[in-house]
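Researcher: Here's a chain I'd like modeled. Treat it as a single chain, no partners, no ligands.
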Amino acid sequence: MEITFGVLIFCIVAFFVAGFIDSIAGGAGFVTAPSLLLIGMPPHMALGTGKLATSIGSVVALWTFWRSNLILKKIVPVGVLSAMAGASFGAFCALQIDGATMGKVIVIMLPLGILFTVLTGGFKLTEGELPKDHFWLRVVLIGVLIGFYEGFFGPGAGTFFLIALHVFLKIGMVQSSGTAKAFNIAANFAAFMTFASGAAVCYEIAIPCAIASMLGNRVGAYYAIKIGGKFVRNILYIVLIILMVSLVYKFFIAS
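Model: Modeled as a single isolated chain. Structure tokens:
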């Protein structure tokens, strides 16, 4: 794949937009993965490159949650290790699939991930006491299972972590969001390390895209109240439709 100036600018814009959307409504991975595929990046490298860029970009949000004491810190060590283990195995499994097939798997999984995110996004419970029965087993299962999904594919994993923490551990939505960031970044980084071991990361694109993602998150956080999550999520769906049509043509028609 030739990295031209136009390709680099397209990726930077895509990751900035993804970071902007993610900070308000979530769903950055639904933009970054197909964007990298569209420039001709091999599927495994698209996943590995996206993992590195988004994990760096999300550190800003994690630091904000941590400073504001909006993370359930006592479960972070176990959750992070579990998520990293699951993500490493998920990425390893992805590397066992040939590139052409993996590209089609990604295209098929994108709408399924979007559908599940939409169906669970409005699911809310009242905050309660932490469950006493099998508490640490729940933490480990959340980390391993969703971590595996993050490593194998990824888009929507942050939302899935948030929902799982809220539903199965009874943590409040805001604290679940902060804690989910810790789990998600750990899973992203572990997956990146696995893809990197298979030479499936393009650092020339990942680093500038990471900076763009950080800037997008920063700008999005500033405009969150003015714009509102509903409007941004509608824009996300429009972008996704365009990307999906392009990917279906690329992997199922043109090939």
